[in-house]
Design brief:
heterodimer; A: mainly alpha; MetI-like fold; B: mainly alpha; 2 domains
């Protein structure tokens, strides 16, 4: 096997595996989108004056941040089978037997926990005087949040959030453990067919690095655009 | 729909002892990978802070690659790729036919350590850069050699400054070890899989695994908090 042969095979493999890119991106994008909405709610609960809301939110964040995503995925996908009867009665079994649903649910709950901490940190960074000023001019609680606190919190959290997006794109690889054929799943299949694991997995790695490079670059542009204003 | 916690009992009747053994393996892999990864991280940080363009470039290429791709792929590349390489060496150089399997525990430690190093490098680099410039100038002024300066002035202070970041690195090292279950290391995750296959109670077992990870995270957080307190003794805040 010459070096050129390896390189040619890796290039072919990159093309073959790129069929999985849309699935990887859908997993990441859907989970990030729903997870973000969840995270805003959890962040507000983390900073709420109601101790029950605070404790509940903190408990959720603690559980999902201190356990591996792989355990969370298996708990939802395989674990739900133990309650099949009950889930059928509730009409939910239909969802839980779908690997797609379970992967997105686990990824969403996971990113929701991490992102809520970032948003809560952003909200804490908003100077209290601004909130008081907004209240003094008669803004409603919702207006204070939506037009004063939240936009500044977002801007503050943006650099860390771009890191979270990269981590999530990497995390979607775990969906391959529950039969989904995204980039890593396709790579596992191809590696078993060709007996050339090193080149196949290296090709998959190249795709992830390129995707993450694009994401990091995109966030960098947004950050710079926001700084100019 | 039922959860029989009896399956988690200790001894022959349950899987409690198997899970506990898995937890020990998880802690062993995490500790070994953290140690090796931290040493590699110091080397990488030294490369990034060095005057040599080639060394800086090499270290940056390493951290960009390792942080840009899923840890699971790193494991597959090292385990299967390394196995293929070992088989090739055995066949073509040593003349032994047949497939060579790598020891999965050692491979697991190496794989986790490789990604730990990439993250530790950034933490350590940041900590070294955060040591006040005046300290280094003072060390130079009293005539210390660069080795003395690094050992007596920079390292002790950088250690304290790196601790919060290295605590985070430890926490994700522990979580990353769950991935080595895919190459057959019987840590918590695989112990739980084996138990769940045998008893058909996946939820009970993966919930147990989840709880074990949370307990490890909680206990190690307390340990690191203590370490931080002892590292911070003698530090005047705001000085």
């Amino acid at each position: 096997m010459g070096g050129l042969d390896h390189l040619g095979f890796i290039l072919d493999t990159v093309f073959h595996l790129s069929a999985g890119i849309p699935r990887t991106l859908v997993l990441a994008a859907v989970s990030l989108a729903i997870g973000f909405v969840l995270a805003v709610g959890v962040a507000v609960a983390l900073l709420a004056s109601n101790p029950a809301a605070r404790k509940l939110a903190a408990g959720y964040v603690y559980v999902f941040r201190s356990s591996p995503l792989l355990v969370q995925i298996f708990l939802i996908y395989y674990g739900s089978g133990q309650f099949r009867g009950a889930l059928e009665v509730l009409g939910l079994w239909h969802f839980f037997r779908e690997a797609w649903f379970c992967a997105i649910l686990a990824l969403t709950l996971n990113t929701g926990a991490y992102t809520s901490v970032l948003i809560a940190g952003g909200l804490r960074s908003v100077p209290w005087g601004q909130i008081e000023a907004a209240q003094a001019v008669g803004m409603s609680r919702y207006r204070v949040f939506a037009s004063i606190a939240f936009p500044q919190a977002l801007r503050h959290a943006l650099p860390a959030y771009s890191n979270e997006v990269v981590l999530m794109i990497k995390a979607t690889a775990l969906a391959s453990t529950i039969t989904l054929l995204e980039i890593t799943g396709l790579a596992k299949q191809l590696s078993a067919e060709t007996y050339r694991p090193f080149e196949v997995f290296a090709a998959a790695g190249i795709i992830y690095i390129a995707l993450n490079g694009v994401v990091a670059g995109g966030f960098g542009l947004v950050e710079r655009a926001l700084q100019r204003r | 729909m039922r959860m029989e916690l009896g399956v988690l009992a200790w001894g022959d009747g349950g899987w409690g002892d198997e899970l506990a053994r898995g937890a020990m393996v998880t802690i062993a892999i995490a500790s070994a990978a953290y140690l090796v990864g931290s040493v590699l991280g110091v080397l990488l940080a030294a490369m990034k802070l060095s005057g040599s363009v080639a060394l800086r470039w090499l270290a940056t290429a390493y951290t960009t690659t390792l942080r840009g791709m899923p840890e699971m792929l790193v494991i597959y590349i090292v385990f299967f790729g390394g196995g293929a390489l070992a088989t090739w060496i055995a066949a073509n150089i040593l003349g032994i036919r047949g497939h060579v399997d790598l020891p999965s525990f050692a491979v697991g430690v190496v794989c986790i350590a490789l990604s730990v190093a990439a993250y530790a490098c950034e933490v350590i680099r940041g900590a070294v850069l955060a040591v006040p410039r005046g300290q280094i100038e003072a060390a130079q002024a009293v005539g210390m050699t660069s080795l003395q300066r690094n050992r007596l002035v920079v390292a002790p202070q950088a250690f304290r400054l790196a601790l919060p970041g290295m605590t985070n690195v430890w926490q994700f090292t522990v979580k990353d070890t769950a991935l080595v279950s895919i190459i057959g290391v019987t840590e918590v995750m695989r112990s739980a899989s084996i138990g769940s296959n045998a008893t058909k109670q996946p939820f009970t077992f993966y919930l147990a695994a989840l709880v074990i990870f949370i307990v490890i995270a909680y206990l190690s957080q307390r340990l690191f908090t203590r370490l931080q307190k002892s590292a911070d003794r003698g530090v005047r805040w705001g000085a």
